[in-house]
Write a structure and sequence with these properties.
This protein is of the alpha+beta class. The chain has 31 helices and 18 strands. Helix 1 runs antiparallel to helix 6, helix 4 crosses helix 5 and helix 13 runs parallel beside helix 15.
Amino acid sequence: MGIFAKETKLTFIYIVLAFLFSVAIRMIWLYQFAGYEPFIFNSQFMINTNDGYYWAEGARDILAGFSQSNDLSAVGAAASELSAFFVKVLPFSFESIILYMPVFLGSLIVIPIILIGKSLENLELGFIAALLSSIAWSYYNRTMVGYFDTDMLNIVLPMFLLWSIIWAIKTNEDKYLIITAIDILIYRWWYPQSYSLELMLFGFILFYTLFFDRKNLYNYKFLAIMMLAMLNIDGYVRFFSVFAVFYMYKQKRFDRYVYYILAISVVLFFVSGGFAPIWMQLKGYVFKDAVSTSTDGMGLHFYSVMQTVREAGHIPFEMFANRISGHVVTFVLSVIGFIYLSYRHKIMLFALPMLGLGFLASVGGLRFTIYAVPVLSFGIAFLITEAARYMPNYRLKFLFIVVLTLAILYPNYKHVLDYKVPTVFNADEVKVLDELKGVAQREDYVISWWDYGYPIRYYSDVKTLIDGGKHDGSVNFPVSFMLTNPQDVSAKMARLDVEYTENGFIKIDTNLSNIEKMTKEYGFKDTNDFLLSLQTDLKLPKKTRDIYFYLPYRMLDIYPVVGTFSNIDLMNGDMKNQPLFYATKMFKQNENILNLGQGILFDLQSQILTIGNQKTSIKRFIQTSYDKNMKLHKELKISNPDADVTIIYMSNYNTFLVLDEKAYSSLYIQLMALEEYDKSLFEEVILTPHVKVYKLKI
């Protein structure tokens, strides 16, 4: 009893130390930006992930007790519900809660890791693995202070699941049946996409049972209760099913029905959707195409958003290794160590599904590396503790473990110091949104690119057409079209898309995109002809709400990407020639030659622009500047009226733009960069150097 109590006490001490270490490391970001006003709003640091504003909006609306119809607020999402709960029970502000939740919830990962170490009778292994996992590149990046997203529990919960599976297989105790089932229920509540990992774990246990322990009735009980918890049906139904079956398992007389229960659960699995959710995820992250064909009657072609999402792209090996272990050497040793650990402790093979998901990053994108972090942390920790056994005395053993642990932690600690990510918006941008909240109504729409959708909804309490979750090619096309086309056709598309979107909530037809509906209802068979008709006096739908354009300076960085989504022939999927758009802050002047980088030179005297091997005259040169009252002034010089290229020097931003006529005449450039708006179509609402907001009149 004394040995057991000592081990329990030591386990608790390791958990507390590892947890405090994880929390302390995450406070470095706060220390680095202490007092930095651009990151602070409402007396608190703002969060640094766009998606966080989705959950924040849901929590805000839960606390308010209402949300308007079809506003896409995450009022039913677990992250929003848990956040709202914390705000109610803790004596901290809403802003503080969402800022610090990732710090404390993400640090909980040390608990299952150390408990798994205990199950392997090697607490030091668990402690070292917990320290490394808690601050490894990808895990830190997605659970740092301000990274308010589901990732703060997305690895914690499967690690608890892995721990309960290990103990269930090792002990065959009934309590682990219900613990595992509850963990799956919580995991699915928190993160519906957990379906894939749960099924892989189920498959490994099934394989283990059929080939190594097929006569053990406990394993079939375990499989059945896991499957019932995993079903793609209502959570409350799964909850009561799990507890009903667990009650039956406690009665010996029901043992004869165990196989029938398993068979029924498998049938229900296929009836409730089977592999469909997994296939959808694979299509999104692995089998992704640049152009997707819609399922509507016209078979329109749209540009796939997955081509532009960095976290879903291919990554080089060095980045892959660094994100998992902090260093390539540590990664290689971790792989070797995990193989050795699995050889010595076969039970660790149940961690392979998580490792497999982590390695999916090589084709699916960097977001998946987070799954491999804790698994491979066990590998390097095992090598360290095994090597330490050869030390001649306890003091040298302790010193050896400390030195090697610090060695593997240092590259990750260095990454934390260098990873100075900004908040999503700066304080000046948020002040604009806060002001807009007092102008716009909750049913009004604010149009901007999807990157800014969630923050706009959170701070201004309005509706958006696209956001971080609603941004496939068919919904991105109209917004891209509005931002990159002339004001007259853009204004018409804005009114059309908003009214068709709202009408779609009433008359639901999931097989038709707004563009297809517009094409058909205006009597066209070719969408290209419909788009051309926007240049005519087209009759627009009745106005039911106001529309605002939110045009931030920061969108300059992604303007070419924004344009890509509408720079496509919807009828055949062919990409059109990209308009000329080049923005730079890196330039230097040598006498009369202005070097803009990337092989682009401008002769100030002759007004000739050189792009690579081509020379061309420019149509106009414009310099913009703000006076002390933040009013924009423009100096225009016409060089060659027949030319196609314009150069804009935004002096206060120290930014040069090189544009062809299509990019120059776009709504974004005209309204944001130049404040040249058609007063019959738009009216200014808020104009600042950071953001321009205009209201649509039609």
